[in-house]
Specification:
The protein is globular and about 55 Å long. The protein is built from 8 helices and 12 strands. It has 243 residues and is α/β, with parallel strands linked by helices. Helix 3 packs across helix 4.
């Protein structure tokens, strides 16, 4: 059992159990893996609020289906990931941001929305046309939903973000860039305020809880395994689902 107190002991910190205000289940990066998501959701206890860490799109083949599913569920808490950030940047300025997004999985997302003819290398005019077609396929409601995604959820001593947090900054003082894209000290420096950080973004072999950090991204698009963690004040309970 983890200690009930968070304190410094020599150079090592002792962490309490993660204790959200009410039970939560945090799902890792889905990345267009609809079948794994459909297999995971029935495993989650009904009294747990479901939180997604972001990165619903790109890399996998069913980004459009994933977005439409999670958007339709008002009981889901959905955070912004760096891939949603890249996708929105493409919608704002396709000529500037399109090439990067396409390199990191945007082509699969375009295909999932039946945007035909997209290629890794496109001219500025082609990128604009591609953006316009994507916006039509998505529709204004889905685009506005994406824009409204928040970068974190904070409950009790649990902070849920996409990519981690600055360990030297209070939970409510984090920059949006850090929450979506990460911080160089996050995985090497322990927090001293007792806050556990649940995060995705960085692929791990299996979901784990260690020294104030809970990693839930098991690379579903590559491994076929989507993972989650359930937190209710006791020891973290991990779930996983494959194809």
């Amino acid at each position: 059992m983890l200690s009930s107190l968070f304190q410094r002991f020599g150079r090592r910190a002792v962490f309490s159990n993660p204790q959200p205000d009410a039970p939560i289940c945090v799902i890792g990066d889905v990345h267009g893996c609809m079948r794994q998501l459909e297999n995971l959701l029935p495993q989650i206890p009904q009294d747990h609020r479901i939180i997604f860490v972001g990165d619903y799109v790109d890399r996998g083949e069913q980004s459009a289906d994933v977005l439409r599913l999670i958007q339709s569920r008002s009981d889901f808490t959905c955070l912004m990931g760096n891939h949603e950030d890249m996708m929105l940047a493409f919608l704002r300025d396709p000529e500037q941001h399109g090439p990067r997004w396409l390199r990191y999985g945007g082509l699969q997302t375009l295909a999932s929305f039946a945007v035909n003819g997209a290629r890794a290398e496109m001219s500025g005019d082609e990128l604009v046309e591609c953006r316009d077609t994507l916006m039509t396929k998505m529709g204004p409601e889905l685009i506005q939903w994406l824009k409204a995604l928040k970068p974190f959820d904070h409950s009790g001593n649990v902070l849920v973000t996409h990519a981690g947090a600055n360990p030297n900054t209070a939970a409510d003082q984090q920059s949006e860039k850090t929450l979506m894209w990460g911080h160089p000290d996050f995985r090497s420096v322990d927090r001293k305020d007792g806050v556990w950080v649940v995060y995705g973004h960085t692929i791990v072999d299996r979901a784990t809880a260690h020294r104030g950090r809970i990693a839930v991204d098991t690379g579903a698009f590559a491994t076929g395994v989507l993972s989650a963690v359930c937190l209710n004040g006791g020891e973290p309970a991990f779930l996983m689902a494959g194809l």
